[in-house]
Hints:
The chain contains 14 helices and no strands. By secondary structure, it is an all-alpha fold.
Amino acid sequence: MGQTTTSLPEFSAARLDASRRRENFPIAAWLLRPGRREARAAIYGFCRLVDDIGDEQLGDARAQLALCQEELEACYSGQPRHPVFQRLQKVILRHQLERGCFLRLIQANLHDQDFVRYSTWEELDTYCTLSATPVGQLVLALEGIVDEGPVGHSDSICTGLQLANMWQDIASDRLRGRRYLPLEVLAQHGVSEEEWESGKPTPGNRASLRHALGRARRLLREGWPLVHEVPGLMRVEMATFVLSGLAATEAVLEAGDSVFEQKAAVSNRRRRATLVSSLSAWRGGQPPGRS
């Protein structure tokens, strides 16, 4: 019998662009200098590749993620072969980015292969330190920002964004056998795991989801000081991140019971309004709207 080989999936520039257009949380790339746009795109390409491997069943996920780690190491001490890593290597070397954030993003997708349900907020927060906060830390690192204060606020925003995305898509996660909403929240509202998995809009399920949305909104608002800790037009961009996350939670609330059957999408109208609002909202001491 011949030996089975594992390779990383193709990831064309066209596919990357299409994927970025589907994202809920725009990075307002038009605000960035071309060099920064290219650096962000290289990091985003890495994130998208490992996420697709972890989520889309493109093959043997563990073997492919192991290859990602090998390619990442080659970025620091060799010549990577995959186009995503070749592009990333230039950014890593130019900006002297450390391995840690990239390794955590790979680890997050390995984690997804084994952990599909969460018992406590602590468990979910730990997962977000692998899957969400490294992205914000890399964005700040491109600007040379590594201080504890801004990084902490970035972590809060990134975690809030990830939670908002989770609560938008509870129907799809249920069909995939995933439950990110912690069991302790269900218990607090008198909901059994079976009731939640039924996907029915029961009073307890509604209350549990509102509870989870409240945590996402609180984290997003707690991260707002980052808007005043970054330079220049990044202030508008960071405001856009926060307001986009809050808009996602509003979309879930407005979707009502339908969120238990389909994703609560953010409308194009709301996206545009969020971008317009961010152009002036960044000047304020807190994001506009309700807490």
